[in-house]
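Students often ask what a holo structure prediction actually looks like on paper. The answer is less mysterious than it sounds. You provide the chain, you provide the ligand, and the output is a string of discrete structure tokens encoding the 3D arrangement of the protein together with nicotinamide-adenine-dinucleotide.
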Amino acid sequence: MDDHRVQVAGTSVSTWHYLGGRRVGSPATFEVRSPLDWSWKLADVARGDADTARAAVDAAQAAFPAWAALTPAERGVHLHRLADAIDAEVARIAEVECADMAMLHASLHARVIPRGAANLRNYADLAVAHEERTWSSKGTANRVLRMPAGPAVIITPWNAPWLLSTWKLAPALAAGNPVVLKPAEWAPLSASLLADLAEQAGLPPGVLNVVQGRGEEVGAALVADPRVARISFTGSPEAARHIGQAAARNLVPFTAELGGKGPLLVFEDADLEAAARTAAGQYDDSGQVCLAGTRLLVHEAVHEEFLARFHAHVDAHVLGDSRDPATTISPLIHPAHLERVAGFVDRARAAGDRVVRGGQRAEVAGVSDGLFYEPTLIEPAANDHEIVQREVFGPVLTVQSFATEQEAIALANSTAYGLSGIVFTGSAQRAERVGRAVRAGTVWVNTFLVRDLTAPFGGMGISGIGREGGEFALEFHAELKTLQILEGSTRT
Ligand code: NAD
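The corresponding structure tokens follow.
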């Protein structure tokens, strides 16, 4: 009997770590509850510590030589097998992820979970397709080799655990680096399912290891381990600073995908209906989206009309159980996070900002212990107020107006973040000008969230360091080596 397993939404989930192909417990545990109904306890999950971190890196280190020795095509076979295993279990993974972190079940099932498989296939193929650069110069034959770097630590946040774990896992494995994955303590369960699927798919022991626990405990111990060759982190700038210090001590390359405070610019020549629909869509997942355009910046000539349309779209939102297809806004992840969101709005009120709509917790009929906050719009009294400058990570947007394109760009670029921007305009020239001028790793024009897996992804300013996606993540996970052989000096 596997007494470390619990049933979550009808699926068996291990509460233990997965180290070197084996399930391993810890003396301590932490409790995981469902944001769908906070009285619903899902599991007591093993709470890793420094010993767990050491054992996980031991396992990854032991797996490294054999995994690195495979060709990209051979590793690709494993990645495709894991992708197939995911495809076969999309429904179960979606149910568990929904119970664990409350993203809308419909989008988990249709889009988010299958994308994990797509990402694995994408990287399996990309690593094979990559051509070595070779050329002749100064009497030598030059080649650029991509060498696997060594064990990689991947640390993910709670707002997209499955999506981000698989997004980061695929390039690391494709590049030849075994992985230690640490999911966030508020939503660790889909990572445990990923370990089960890796085992089913025959991934060699130690190539994927999953440890659970708190960031400051097992997370900090993992990133401090000098045997770790790469650290790929997604989360808050605060945690990134700690992790960056550990990476600096060991001189280990580190990518960080961090928070955002994206502008959503609406120019007077924009399709206002599309802009208003997209703006109202920023409340999806209760605004717990790093890429969200949370600062609405609207040209003064269309401000009123835009807001009328925006309110109509927000009125149509339905707060509710994420499993209900009618729901468009899910609950927040955790009571502590709900408190945090409410704190931002309370402080904005106290600072003289005007709450245009929302601004309080919401009750939802039929949901006990619900963690809902009303979709909230705030008109700030000044641009330097906290509500404009700091990421809330909840269903809270601000709205400001501008008179000129120059002013719009200045407002757009007036925070320390630089993850994403959204621009609505009917002018091709303006799309180009503003698209270039907005300081952000990704700028969408007249659309939102459309992503090509091969495009670079990351943030400027305090939104991140480095780029992932496509070739960029493969490059990060490789050690590039220049091999120069004197021409004519060797025989076959
Ligand atoms: P967080 O920084 O608190 O935690 C993220 C992960 O880091 C968790 O697994 C946590 O346990 C771990 N961690 C925390 N402190 C650590 C330490 N000292 N050493 C090692 N690990 C540590 O973030 P969160 O609250 O889970 O997630 C929300 C944040 O993530 C938001 O700021 C959001 O914008 C950001 N985010 C960014 C992206 C992106 O792609 N840029 C995507 C999703 C979320």
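The chain has two domains: 5-258+459-482, 262-445.
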